[in-house]
Amino acid sequence: MSKPTIAIVGRPNVGKSTLFNRIVGGRMAIVEDKPGVTRDRLYGNGSWLTHDFHVIDTGGIEIGDEPLLEKMRAQAEIAVDEADVILFLVDGRTGLTDADETVADLLRKSKKPVVVAVNKLDNYQQRELMYEFYALGLGDPYAISCAHGQGIGDLLDAVVAQFSDNEPINEADDAIRFALIGRPNVGKSSLVNTILGKERVIVSDLAGTTRDAIDTPFSRDGQEYVIVDTAGIRRRGRVYEKTEKYSVLRAQRSIEESDVVLVLINGEEGIIEQDKKIAGYAHEAGRAIVLVVNKWDAVEKDDKTMEKFRRKIREQFQFIDYAPIVFLSALTGSRVDQVLPVIRQVAENHSLRVQTSLLNDCIMDTIAMTPPPSDKGKRLKIFYATQVAVRPPMFVLFVNDPELLHFSYVRHIENRLRETFGFIGTPIKIVSRKKN
Ligand code: GDP
Ligand code: GDP
User: Fold this and answer.
1) What is the average pLDDT score of the chain?
2) What span, in angstroms and rounded, lies between the C-alpha atoms of 208 and 89?
3) How many whole angstroms separate alpha carbon 202 and alpha carbon 198?
C-alpha cells in the first residue's frame, strides 16, 4: 500500500461530503440542502503539508433501507476496515445525539485513531458548542466550519499526526500495478485465481486482516506485477459488501492505486450502465484500460457472435475506443494467457515517450493535410508540440490563441497521434498554451 487512508464518518447531514470536497478539492460532489442527495465521488486523494493520503466519504455508501443506526454501524465498520485514521464528524448546532454515541462506541472499540470534528460552528460565539462532544470520550474535538473553511487546517494537522511513521512502502518501481474492476459476480476473483494459478490462492486467508495484505505481487516472464486490492476482490463476508455503492468505492480505490485497469464485463449478461460508469472513472483518472469480456464459455455463439459483441462494446464505450478487448473464460482458462501480455503492452503505451522531433513531424503533417478550420476570420496556428508527461501521455500544443483550438480538432490530432504512435490501451491528454 502506498498512501494512508482517512475515512469520514458521521450522521447524515453533518457535512461529510462538504468536508470531503474541501479536502479533496477538484471535481466536486453534489451538495444540496437536503439529506440523501446522490453523490458519485466516494474516494479521492488529498494532501496536507508533506503528507499525501486517500479520503473516503462513507456517507456516500448507501446501505439500503436499514434503520439509521444500522446504516451508521455499517458505515463505521467500513471506516474501521478501510482507514488508517477515522475522522468522526458531528454537527455542533444539533448537539450530541444517540446516533453519535453509538458510532463513538464502535470507533472506540476499533482501536483505530479517531479525530472528532465539530462542524457548522461558523462563528466565534458558536465555538463553545464544541465542549459537549468531549463526552464522546474520543479526545479533543476540533471546531470547524466546512462551509467557511475554518478550522480545517488544525483538524488536518491532528489527522496527519496520527499517521504511522512508516507511511509509504514502495514496491519495485517497474512493477505493473493492475486492478480488476466490475460488478459483483462478473468473475474478478475467478480471473485472479486463474491468472495466479492454484498455489497463490492461499492469499485469501491473509486478505483483509491487514491493509498491507491487500495487494498481491507476482512475476511472470521476467516482468513484475502487482494485483491491486486482491482482498477487496475476495470478499470478507461483511453485509455492506453486496451494495452497489461499496463496489463503486472499491473500484475507485483500485483505480487510484493502479496503472492498468481491467474492466470486466459479463459476456453472458451483456453490458450494463454500471460497467460504463466504472470504465468512465478509469478513463477520467487517466489509467490504461483493457476491456475483458468474461464467461465467454457460457455464451451460445456462432462465427459472428464475437464480432457483434465487439461492435456493441464500441458503441457503448465510445469514450474508451482505445481500449483493447479480450474475450475469455476465467472458468475454463480459455484465452486467459492473453491477459498479461496485453497488460504489459498497454502499460508500455501508458508510459510511452515520443521523441519531440517525431511528434512535431506528426503534428505538422496533420496540419498540412487538414488545416484547422478558421473561426470568425481567425485561424489557429500551431507552432510546435511537446510531450510533458507520461502515465498517461500528455502533450502541450503551443498555439497563437488557445480559444481557436476546438474540441473536434483536438480529437483529430489525437486520432493522428494514435495512428502514428499506437497508444493502444491508454488515454492521451492534449492541452494548449499560448505562445507569444
Ligand atoms: P453529509 O450528509 O454529512 O454529507 O452532509 P453535507 O455535506 O451534504 O451537508 C449537509 C448540509 O449542511 C448542507 O446543506 C451543507 O451546505 C451544510 N453544511 C455543511 N457544512 C456546513 C458548515 O460548516 N456550516 C453550515 N452552516 N452548514 C454547513
Ligand atoms: P466476482 O464477484 O467478480 O469476484 O466473481 P466470482 O469470481 O466470484 O464469480 C462469480 C460466479 O461466476 C462464480 O460462480 C464463478 O464460478 C462464475 N464464473 C466466473 N468466471 C466464469 C467464467 O468464465 N465462465 C462461467 N461460466 N462462469 C464463471
Assistant:
1) 86
2) 26
3) 8
Mutating to test ligand 2, I would choose from 188, 190, 230, 334 the residue with most ligand atoms within 8 A of its C-beta, which is 190
Tell me the C-alpha to C-alpha distance, in Å, between residue 302 and each of 120, 299, 313. 62, 10, 18
For cell 501480455, what's the residue?
341
Mean pLDDT of 350-377: 92
Cα separation of the two ends of the chain? 45
Residue 180 CB less than 6 A away from ligand 2: no
Can you name the residues that pair with 399 across neighbouring β-strands?
382, 434
CB crowding 173-189: b at 16 or more within 10 Å, else e: eebbbbbbbbbeebbbb
Here the cell at position 339 is 491477459
Residue 53 sits at φ, ψ, to 5 deg, of -155, 170
* Single-letter residue type at 171: E
Classified as helix, coil or strand, 337 is: helix
Nearest CA to ligand 1 atom 17: 15
Rounded distance, CA 384 to CA 398, Å? 6
Place of cell 485497469: 261
Cell of 296: 465467454
pLDDT at 24: 86
ipTM: 0.72
Nearest CA owner, ligand 1 atom 26: 120
Could you tell me the distance, in angstroms and rounded to a whole number, from the CA of residue 329 to the centre of ligand 2? 9
